[in-house]
């Protein structure tokens, strides 16, 4: 894949790079305004975008970070290909198409002009118009390859495919698993441990469809996909999870859901044999369970340390499953941290640490820092872990993490 910027003249590149400090300062204001203008003019795109992420500001922040990176590396777009691929996985899963990119470009330029006013000269707007064309071409090319790959895989498909809820299993007070089988009875494509699927929901009384991405919580090679969904209740800083509540309360065994083929670049490296440390917080355990089950099945000699943090035993899903794997396999160690354990948790000795996961505790469990670390959970949880592992001297190439929703920054 080429990432050439030869279409851009030296002056255009200089202008774009000169706007980097402005984007650092005003990026979120620009992208917030961008979404307001674009969705105002094209409300049909609300069938694709997560409304909650818009309201909470996560989507504008993620886009601002991407635009900033693109401007900073406009003369070397190859440097941001990992970011492009991560976003492209999400776009392919959401069924973002090439014909939507001109709409995005038009409104991004309008938002830059609207926020910066006279500071956004015709020269700057013209330069960004040219640069956006080059950046969009990179995304379109990467996504085209991903669409073709997903459709060409054995059992693969394009677009949304109908799946039936074969089983609905309550895993804890807040997490429920859904076992999904294809309505057409045909094969389903394999996936890599850690990947996710998109589920499209049509709710009665809702004008727009809702699409959410959920990690696959079992190992590949089954005749079903399993997702394990946390019921998101309303908090002071975020609304109730509309889709998660709908799945918990209104979707039953036998109901039909529309699903896209598995996607995502947060995946277990199956070519390595070095020790693995899987650390999860709350529902962040879903991709970790997939990784654990896969290692246990296909790499039974590979050392695994599974660390899970939850509020208490009532919210802790799949505890017995992981406990059983650990008790039957010498290569698997399992540790639990509860923030606020119940008396029942204490009496049953269900946990190993009270409070929060910290570096000192990790070091007492994992003696060497040369393992591969995978983690997923709430953003503050991941920021703490990322900082702790870096402090310990874990090489950056051994640190892997996944965001639920738009990517944030952990630094």
TrEMBL record:
Top-level division of the source organism's lineage: Bacteria
Protein's gene: hmpA
EC number: 1.14.12.17
GO molecular function terms listed in the Swiss-Prot or TrEMBL record: nitric oxide dioxygenase NAD(P)H activity
Residue numbers marked as site, Involved in heme-bound ligand stabilization and O-O bond activation: 35
Function description: Is involved in NO detoxification in an aerobic process, termed nitric oxide dioxygenase (NOD) reaction that utilizes O(2) and NAD(P)H to convert NO to nitrate, which protects the bacterium from various noxious nitrogen compounds. Therefore, plays a central role in the inducible response to nitrosative stress.
Lineage of the organism: Bacteria, Bacillati, Bacillota, Bacilli, Bacillales
A Pfam short name: NAD_binding_1
Gene3D superfamilies assigned to the protein according to its UniProt record, in alphabetical order: Globins, Nucleotide-binding domain of ferredoxin-NADP reductase (FNR) module, Translation factors
Species this chain originates from: Cytobacillus spartinae
Binding site for FAD: 196, 212-215, 403-406
Active-site residue numbers: 101, 143
Cofactor, free-text remark: Binds 1 heme b (iron(II)-protoporphyrin IX) group per subunit.
Residues covered by the Globin domain: 7-144
Top EC category: oxidoreductase
Region (Reductase): 155-411
Domain remark text: Consists of two distinct domains; an N-terminal heme-containing oxygen-binding domain and a C-terminal reductase domain with binding sites for FAD and NAD(P)H.
Protein family per UniProt: Belongs to the globin family. Two-domain flavohemoproteins subfamily. In the C-terminal section; belongs to the flavoprotein pyridine nucleotide cytochrome reductase family.
Keywords attached to this entry: Detoxification, FAD, Flavoprotein, Heme, Iron, Metal-binding, NAD, NADP, Oxidoreductase, Oxygen transport, Transport
Amino-acid positions noted as binding NADP(+) in the UniProt annotation, renumbered to this chain: 282-287
Transmembrane region(s): none
Name of the protein: Flavohemoprotein
Site (Influences the redox potential of the prosthetic heme and FAD groups): 90, 402
Required co-factors: heme b; FAD
Annotated PROSITE patterns: FAD_FR, GLOBIN
SUPFAM superfamilies noted in UniProt: Ferredoxin reductase-like, C-terminal NADP-linked domain, Globin-like, Riboflavin synthase domain-like
Catalytic activity: 2 nitric oxide + NADH + 2 O2 = 2 nitrate + NAD(+) + H(+); 2 nitric oxide + NADPH + 2 O2 = 2 nitrate + NADP(+) + H(+)
InterPro entries linked to this entry: Cbr1-like_FAD-bd_dom, FAD-bd_FR_type, FNR_nucleotide-bd, Globin, Globin-like_sf, Globin/Proto, Hmp, OxRdtase_FAD/NAD-bd
Binding site for heme b: 91
């Amino acid at each position: 894949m080429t990432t050439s910027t030869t279409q851009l003249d030296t002056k255009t590149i200089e202008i774009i790079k000169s706007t980097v400090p402005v984007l650092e300062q005003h990026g979120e204001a620009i992208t917030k305004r961008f979404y307001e203008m674009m969705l105002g003019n094209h409300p049909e795109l609300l069938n694709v975008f997560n409304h909650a992420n818009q309201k909470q500001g996560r989507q504008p922040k993620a886009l601002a970070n991407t635009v900033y990176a693109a401007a900073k590396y406009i003369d070397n777009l190859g440097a941001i290909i990992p970011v492009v691929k991560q976003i492209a996985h999400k776009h392919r899963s959401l069924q973002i198409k090439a014909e939507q990119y001109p709409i995005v470009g038009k409104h991004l330029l309008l938002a830059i002009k609207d926020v910066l006013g006279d500071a956004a000269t015709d020269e700057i707007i013209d330069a960004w118009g040219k640069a956006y064309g080059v950046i969009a071409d990179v995304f379109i090319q990467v996504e085209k390859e991903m669409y073709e790959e997903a459709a060409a895989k054995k059992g693969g498909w394009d677009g949304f495919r109908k799946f039936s809820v074969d089983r609905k299993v309550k895993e804890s007070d807040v997490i429920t698993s859904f076992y999904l089988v294809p309505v057409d009875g045909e094969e389903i494509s394999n996936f890599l441990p850690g990947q996710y699927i998109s589920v499209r929901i049509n709710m009665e009384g809702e004008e727009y469809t809702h699409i959410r991405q959920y990690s696959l919580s079992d190992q590949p090679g089954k005749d079903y996909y399993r997702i394990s969904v946390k019921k998101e209740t309303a908090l002071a800083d975020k609304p109730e999870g509309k889709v998660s509540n709908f799945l918990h309360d209104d979707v039953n065994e036998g109901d039909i859901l529309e699903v896209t083929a598995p996607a995502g670049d947060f995946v277990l490296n199956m070519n390595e044999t070095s020790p693995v440390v899987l650390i999860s917080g709350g529902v962040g355990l879903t991709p970790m369970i997939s990784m654990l089950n896969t290692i246990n099945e296909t790499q039974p000699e590979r050392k695994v340390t599974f660390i899970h943090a939850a509020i208490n035993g009532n919210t802790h899903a799949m505890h017995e499953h992981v406990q059983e794997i650990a008790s039957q396999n010498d290569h698997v160690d399992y540790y639990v941290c509860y923030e606020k354990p119940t008396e029942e948790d204490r009496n049953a000795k269900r946990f190993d640490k009270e409070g929060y996961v910290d570096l000192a505790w990790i070091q007492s469990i994992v003696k060497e820092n040369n393992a591969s670390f995978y983690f997923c959970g709430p953003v503050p949880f991941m920021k703490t872990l990322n900082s702790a592992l870096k402090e310990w001297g874990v090489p950056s190439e051994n640190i892997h993490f996944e965001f639920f929703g738009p990517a944030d920054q952990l630094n």
